[in-house]
């Protein structure tokens, strides 16, 4: 399958039609040498431009270099096409000021106000060792081997500069980011991504997705803020819940994805539409009602999550859920108020545990081969 253009005004992997597979990684920077960090970002950018075009990570490749040296590509993607690979980079708040308050790279003053630490939400069960990070890279592709190869090579290139803090594999996109895509299903069996921001909605993207020049941090103009939440889904409990109850919790029908009280998947939600008992068909605490722009000051998100199953938990249950990812212009006005409401009232909470959290400032796109990820910041 084809290659997604790497260069552009915005980074690829945000409005790109969501691919089927994910390998997400968060890194800690282990050097305090600013020049080494910048060199690595340059090398990463060059490698990313190559890999997203379906080429080896380095110019010699897996088998073209000298036999005496380790190859500049690890080789497991030899013979595989680009598979729609996108690589999207983001900077965490700890890059600007680390946990002990140090401004390691002289960039603390450039931290965007929108990169404000997320508050604690009701019910959070976050594990610090799989949360946060100085840098992140989202690799999406239609072939898991291609996504993993890309992350592995970036980690290899970054040796001595970064170390992997945590990473997450995802299979099965849980969102559509283009009107051309059919809506996929999450592990609760419901269509997910129906009311998402879509690539075709240019005006809405300007308003809700892309950081704008006047927003505060000029180097972020054309970029976007990514919130990640690893959400464990207690699927065994869910599977013992009646169909009617499941639909009440979500606020949509399981089959077609139509809003309760509506007919078809893409019908506008009518929160006043009556159900069989004359009461509103959509419960006051249904997920789609609490997350809806009407109840969140108009806030919208571009959701781009993936299903995960990380084996089992040793207690006879699948360690499964949703690796939630959402891009937005300002989390303080979008993710935070929506999640505050959901965390307090969502009927779905009984079946969910948020176990990891991340927030990253994803800079604008790389313009050409002389540009690199984060040039505007350094
Ligand atoms: C809508 C599932 C977590 C925000 C939906 C829909 C489903 C769903 C089935 C309806 C289809 C659609 O419009 O996409 C889930 C599951 C979650 C989860 C299973 C956790 C495992 C979250 C979180 C947020 C969120 C953490 C944000 C804080 C939204 C929004 C909508 C939505 C904004 C669209 C509401 C609308 O405008 O109609 N979700 N969701 N969801 N969800 Fe979630």
Features:
binds protoporphyrin IX containing FE; alpha+beta; Dyp_perox_N; heme; transmembrane helix; lyase; Deferrochelatase
Structure commentary:
Residues 183-366 form the Dyp-type peroxidase C-terminal domain. Residues 11-171 form the Dyp-type peroxidase N-terminal domain. It is found in: Cell envelope. The chain has one domain (21-362). It has helices at residues 34-52, 93-96, 144-157, 202-208, 235-238, 243-250, 287-290, 335-345; strands at residues 21-29, 86-92, 135-141, 162-173, 224-233, 302-303, 306-312, 318-328, 352-362. It has 8 helices and 9 strands. The longest helix is centred in the first third of the chain and has 19 residues, at 34-52. The protein is α+β, with helices and mostly antiparallel strands. The structure holds protoporphyrin IX containing FE. Protoporphyrin IX containing FE (HEM) binds next to strand 5, helix 7, strand 8 and helix 8.
Q: What structural category characterises the helix and strand content?
A: alpha+beta
Counted beta strands = 9
Instruction: Return Rg in Å.
Output: 21 Å
Which stretches are poorly predicted, pLDDT < 50 over at least 5 residues?
Answer: none
Count the DSSP helices. Answer: 8
Report the principal-axis shape. Answer: globular
Largest β-sheet summary: 8 strands, antiparallel, barrel
Cofactors and ligands: protoporphyrin IX containing FE
SSE topology string: EHEHEHEHEHHHEEEHE
Furnish the topology, listing elements before pairings.
Elements: E1 21-29, H1 34-52, E2 86-92, H2 93-96, E3 135-141, H3 144-157, E4 162-173, H4 202-208, E5 224-233, H5 235-238, H6 243-250, H7 287-290, E6 302-303, E7 306-312, E8 318-328, H8 335-345, E9 352-362
Antiparallel strand pairs: 1-3, 1-4, 2-3, 2-9, 4-7, 5-8, 5-9, 6-8, 7-8
The structure holds protoporphyrin IX containing FE.
